[in-house]
Amino acid sequence: DEDNYSDDCIWEDGSALEASSKKDSERGCLVDGISVELDISQEVSGKVPTRRASSEEKEIAELVHKTHLLCLLGRGRLMDSACDDPLIQASLLSLVPDHLFKTLQNPKLTSSCLSQLVGWFRNNFRVRSSNISERSCHSSLVSLLQTREGTPEAVAGLSVSLFRALNLAARFVSMLDVAPLKPEATKSNSMEKSMKRKGDIFSSPTLMIADPGLPSSDSISSESNIAVGKSIQYGWKNQDSCISNKRKDKMLDDPSVSGVPVDISESKRKGDVEFELQMEVALAATAIISSGSPNATTPPYKKLKRDFSNGLSTAMGSKKTGAPIYWSEVFCNGENLTGRWVHVDAVSAIVDGEGNVEAAAAACKKSLRYAVAFSGNGAKDVTRRYCVKWYKIASERVDSTWWDSVLAPLKELESGTTERSTRSSMEDSELVTRALTEPLPTNQQQAYRNHQLYAIERWIKKYEVLHPKEPVLGYCGGHPVYPRTCVQKLHTKEMWLREGLQVKAGESPAKVLYMMHSEAKRKQQPVDHDGNRRDEETTATALYGKWQTEPLRLPRAVDGIVPKNERGQVEVWSEKCIPPGTVHLRYPRIGGVARKLGIDFAPAMVGFEWRRGGGSVPVFDGIVLCSEFEDAVMEAYSEEEGRREGEEKRRREMDACRRWHQLLSSLATLRRLNCSYGDGKA
């Protein structure tokens, strides 16, 4: 067979070329222009196994989340304190034009009165490309005053300082971008990177609002064609690589860099290529703009950068400004009847745009989990004002009990004086109203599973039921929406007994669950007389609601006899489960004392303990006996414990004496041996 096989096959001698790159070695070898590629399918390679986070990892992630929250709260308080610096406020007031003071002299301040001031501030203080700052809060504000450029945090903080210098009630607001609460949430970083590679609209600066004073796109079309042609000549192609932020800043600030050809061997990312193309178009546009101003001394690229920052708004989704993480709030007493806090984003020159903060943060791949306002060296959570879709962030926030306890002392500092306390109470009412009037979500599966206000019967859990099914608040996908208060918990009769309740007579189950047996439970099924195992695959479990129960009525102890269950025990799940006329004594070894006295009692089973491989075992704690025997049993128990402690003390003394005798005997033997066979020294 082997000879026939070798005759049928034709073999040739050939030489394999060495792979010139890692990519060629993975795909195959090239011989005489022929490429052999191996396509390994997903089924052959297999899926990557997913691992669920352990309890320890979840605990560590929660601790990191809480620690990060505390650090960001401290950072916000430092910035709030720096905004109160009198020298910074005086420097800002010296820069404000006189006509802007007149717009703020209205006793009833409204959001429209702030527009001109915010526009002036936006034109004079800009955000630089690099948002990373290693300076302190005070140094950042001072540097921003000197250079007129700074981080978004410093720009927002300086706007708060300006408002306070003008005797306006202002707060510094920060969106706390904390570490994820759950370990699996850290996987979102790789997802964000992949989304950016697919052409995210926010991977490059997005010019939102055009200034009518700037030339139109038609006027610079010819120059842009020249720029594009130059880029093709220099070999700017879509290749995979990365370019540092320092190089981008250098292209903006150094005119010699923009005209230098790029080395083709240096690979580039698609987003970097687009950025460089935009730079060429921008430089061409600058040439046209600067041609009409012969007295201009500013370099063209600098002029373009300034004109674009003044004439165009990169408010939402800008690569330069990023997500709206920092802004300010100004209290306008002319808004509504009692006044309200108005959102002011000095970074983007937006006034009263609180409804767009959540959408802008989501567009920049940020989650609006915490929005905290800082004032008077205190802090207050104002997330409800800016977050409309609360159901999306509820699972990403820390436990409300811990969070409220952390903010309680800071909230008192933020309230401060009587006037501020009144504003704070009105704001609390506003936030509660927003929480209770949240609009109906449109996503059934994600929104209504654990929504705090609304529920759909389709998405309630198996141990829940809607009762009563009214009122209907609306419809979502043809399903009626009910208040969350209509969702009732269901338990079995045994579980209701543990809470001191019993099902009323004649009540039919509110729901019946049919559960499948596992393979292990099927093996435990009884065997009939023929030796065949009866496969009872399903078990019906009757569930009842709280409206079908009543207080537990247990039999009373009569003639010193404790009522027991079929196992001779008393199930003490709570104090309500103790039979009338009896008492629960939770002392060790007290059962033996009652047995010696001949008093009837029952062991108290307080729960179950789960063990590995052994299932659940009952846990006993003390005994239950009639209340008339309590004093006699306790007196005998005290005497018994005193006698037991005395015996234990004597046993310890005898053991100590035995050990001392053994030690001294060993020392005497050692001394005798040294005297007889040693040098005679002890």
UniProtKB/TrEMBL annotation:
GO terms for molecular function: damaged DNA binding; single-stranded DNA binding. It is found in: Nucleus. This is Rad4 beta-hairpin domain-containing protein. GO terms for biological process: mismatch repair; nucleotide-excision repair. InterPro entries: BHD_2, DNA_repair_Rad4, Papain-like_cys_pep_sf, Rad4/PNGase_transGLS-fold, Rad4_beta-hairpin_dom1, Rad4_beta-hairpin_dom3, Rad4_BHD3_sf, Transglutaminase-like. It comes from Genlisea aurea. Its main location: nucleus. SUPFAM superfamilies: Cysteine proteinases. It holds the Pfam family Transglut_core. It comes from the Eukaryota. GO terms for cellular component: cytoplasm; nucleotide-excision repair factor 2 complex; XPC complex.
